[in-house]
Structure formats: structure tokens, C-alpha cells
Amino acid sequence: MLAKFEKRAYVGSEKVWVGKYRNLQNISHWHMEHEMIACMEGCAQVMVADTIYTLLPKSVIFCQSGCVHYIHTDPDCLLLVCLFDEKLCEPLTHPYQLSTPLFQDHYNVLERLTAIRQELSEQPRFFEVRTIAMIEELMTDIFRSEPLIANDQQPSEVTARYKQLLDRIDHEFYSITFYDAALFMNVSESYFSHYFKRQAGMTFSQYLNVVRIEKAVQIINAEPDLKVTDVMSRCGFNTIRSFNRAFKLITGYTPRTIPKGYVLNTRSFPAVQGTFDPTLAEAELLAE
Q1: Which of 29, 188, 251, 259 has the fewest Cβ atoms nearer than 10 Å?
Q2: How far apart are CA 284 and CA 46, in angstroms?
């Protein structure tokens, strides 16, 4: 499942996950968990619901469940990212939402997320109960103090259409074209080009290549003896040269040298901006 929807696997019944990333780059996606992003060092650009925010140290972004978003950071940026089940804070987030997803960290978010991460890592007795309590307390403190507005559960017509387009790309990756996508969105090609890049953080062709290469990796894992040309054609590439170039750019490997069982993590992968320079360091999920 690529950018259209992300589902997180949790340790236990706590339904909370915290990760520490360096140089996080991810594509346009959404999930039914809430997401809290706190900056430790450096700078990140975070798109949430059509608006790009600059995330700096001592600031936090809260992304409500179901909201389309992506994250692009500077190479040395350190982020703490927390995902948790929307039902944990339903009395807060069902009727209300923050007036803006970006706010200053007056709540010791970094320290509190670090403590939650430690609970999940060490798993002491009753860690699940403790973790849920820590998330509920943090969210209550934030929603008590930050400006709130009524929660509009219905996405705009354009956003809903965009989500449908991502779903269509995920299923028709081998044949869909830029023209097909613009027609589906019912906008001009020039407007669609600008809109898609703002929403996804990359051009349509770059995004489509990521989807196709993810499918290629899945095919190679499932059918390791399949000819590279067959993998290429099944993923929608017209030439072996373009396929090999895109494959190496996105995974860091050629189709013949990719490690057995390799999984393309579309939540964090080499940056796909500008010229899509493959020398950029890969996003790192840190253990410490």
C-alpha cells in the first residue's frame, strides 16, 4: 500500500508508535491515526491539507487523522514522529481541531514523546496503559491551551478527488498518464502540474516512478527468476534504460543486485526533490 493510505503496526494494544528520524523524506500520504511531529534539530517542510509549514526546533505539528500530508527535511534534521489511534483522544479531536497544525512547544513535547518512546522500547509492566495515559495527558494539555475550531470531518471536494486519484495511481500504475490524471481531476494540465507538485512534494512523473518501482520490488521478491524486461513491462516502463535508471535512483540498487526481501519504505526514502539527486543521504530511523 503506497501513498494513498498508511497503516501502522503497533507493539501491543497501546496503538501508539514513536520514531526518531534523521533526514526524513516521505511522499504524500494519509492514515487514520493522528500524527505529531516535533523538531529536535534542523528544519523541515511539512505539507498539511494544502499548506506548507516550516518546522523548526521548539515547534510542533499536529496532523489530524485522514489529512493528506508529507515531510521533507534538511539532511541533518532530527524529528520525533508519533502516530497514535484517533480513538484515544476522540473526546478532543472529534468535536475540535487546532486552528493551525503548527504550534510552539510550550508542553515539553520532545521530552514527553521521548519518554513514550522509551516505554514502548523497554516495555515495563503495564507499559500499554501508561503509554495511553501519557498520550491522553499530552493531547489534553495541548487542546486546553491552543486555539481550537470546530472539526470539519468532510474533506473538500478537491481533496477527496485527490485521494481518489492516488488510489487510482496505485491500481493503474502501469498505464495511467499525466493526461489521464489531469482529466480525472477535471483541471487543466498546467494547473494540475502545479497542484500535484504542491500536494505530493514532487512532480507527477516522479511520484508515478516511485509507485512503479515499489511494484517492481514486490514483483522481484515474489518472482525472483523473472526476467528484468518482464518486470519492466509489467510496471509500465517503455525502455530498460529508463527502468534501470529509476530503479537505481529510488532504491539505490539495480534490479539484479537488490537484496533478497528488500522492502521500499515509501514513508522514508531518498529525497525526491529538484533533480532527485541520488547522492543525498537516505532517511534514517534511529535506534537511539
Answers
A1: 259
A2: 17
Task: Pull the grid cell for residue 73.
Answer: 527535511
Rounded Cα distance between 237 and 128, Å, is 46
In a domain, 250, yes or no: yes
Closest-CA residue to 73 (of 96, 89, 54): 54
In this structure, what CATH number is given to the domain that contains residue 100?
Answer: 2.60.120.280
The C-alpha cell of 105 is what? 512547544
* Residue 25: DSSP 8-state: B
Note whether 42 and 63 are same-domain residues.
Answer: yes
List, for residues 120-159, the tens digit of each pLDDT value: 999 999 999 999 999 999 999 999 999 999 987 666 788 7
d(CA 250, CA 109): 33
Closest CA to 168 of 17, 150, 177: 177
Name all contacts of 121-125 with Cβ < 8 Å and 24+ positions apart: 123/11, 123/12
